[in-house]
Amino acid sequence: MAESNIIERYGNLLKSEQLVTLEDKIMANTFVLAAQEPFPGFFNYYSESPQESKPLYIYLVVDKLYTLEEITRARQNIKKYYPSYFHADAGTVTLYNKTYHMIRIRHLTSYDQIKELQACFADEGFEFKKKPSKKISAVGIIRLKKFFKLREVEEGLYFDVVEKDHGYITIPRYVKWAEFEELTKKVKYNWEGSFFDAALGHFHHNFEIQDMIRIYNPKIDLELLKKAKAKYLEQIR
Description:
With 237 residues, the protein is α+β, with helices and mostly antiparallel strands. Helix content is 22%, strand content 37%. It has two domains: 3-8 and 149-235; 10-140, no CATH class. The chain has helices spanning 68-81, 112-123, 177-189, 222-235; strands spanning 6-21, 32-35, 57-61, 87-95, 98-106, 137-154, 157-160, 166-170, 197-205, 208-216. The radius of gyration is 18 Å and the shape is globular.
């Protein structure tokens, strides 16, 4: 793989997930959400053994806005002494029309790591929101601020270098979340045999914004990306 094909971008990603509050293996009286099925219908995202229980996407709800710089610096510091690999991104989660600031944690291998990482972030000065009075099980809207490491395979088509089975297609204009949901329904309806998960986002590049859609499929390839882009462009007016 030629390094010249690898690019890094900063941007946002917007998606919906079925979220539940975690009750165990977390710091006392803290608000932690889990996405037990971040890609509905795809049960082997991390493993060929779908019955294997491990945390996929964990959201540590914090009590105020922490900047991407603060979260990135904390992550860098924690990685100096925390023995296991993890990744952390800044973002928000909206539930029942209320928006919370959070840290999205991924690539954990055990639920026991959640409490450990909470303690690490607490040592870095982060404070967590208190646990809600009622257990939550609902669809939440996730907005992430993150860096992307990408391999451009054709103009406007990218594969994620870090996240397996993720691809990105550029689109010609900004679309709002409600419009994106309708576009995705139409694409799936008009694409026989299509099976994918999609998220909405953008990259910052050359002092401008490039709108894009993230496509997930465990068997993603260039042809699937090309087809996805063609189908979305058919619907975008």
